Amino acid sequence: MALRSRNRVITKTAEEVIDQAIRENRFGELLLYGFAVLFVLTGLALMIFAALKGSPLSAGLGVISSALFLPAVRSTRRTRQESVAIRLLQAPLRQADTSKEAAEAIRIVFVETFGVRNNDGN
């Protein structure tokens, strides 16, 4: 991959591009972990408050807040799986002798990881 920067061409290897994609996913992954922890701690705090004050409404809100960690955990897990799939793509790309072989390796990973298919069903 070649990028232009002030009249000079910068060439990136497949490994550098993959490393950059994984670094970009890392922030989202950490953010989702943070949300999961925040939802659980908030829910627990509300349930403790409800137990001390005898407030069923606060207890219900605490349960709802704690349950919100599930979507955050699922999203984090999916992001992690995508990062691993991208990382595993390095091996077939290194072994590819032609651009056609590299394109086929990328297509297989995208279909298996992201469910992306061509219009003809491939």
Given the C-alpha coordinates, what overall shape results? rod-shaped
User: Secondary-structure element order, as H and E?
Assistant: EEHHHHH
> Would you report the number of β strands?
2
- What is the helix fraction of residues, given as a range? over 70%
**Rg of Cα set:** 22 Å
Taking strands numbered 1, 2, ... along the chain, how are they ordered across the largest sheet? 1-2
Largest sheet: 2 strands, antiparallel
- Distance N to C terminus: 25 Å
Taken as a percent bin, the fraction of beta residues is 5-15%
Structural class: mainly alpha
Tally of contiguous helical segments: 5
Q: Regions with pLDDT < 50 over 5+ consecutive residues?
A: none
Estimate the mean pLDDT confidence. Answer: 76
What does this structure look like?
The protein is mostly helical and 122 residues long. Helices cover 77% and strands 7% of the residues. The chain is rod-shaped and about 70 Å long. The two termini are 25 Å apart. The model has no long low-confidence stretch (mean pLDDT 76).
List the helices and strands and how they pair.
Elements (H helix, E strand, L loop, with lengths): L1 E4 L2 E4 L2 H40 L2 H12 L1 H20 L1 H6 L3 H16 L8
Antiparallel strand pairs: 1-2
What distinguishing features does this structure have?
rod-shaped, 7% strand, mainly alpha, 122 residues, two-stranded antiparallel sheet, 2 strands
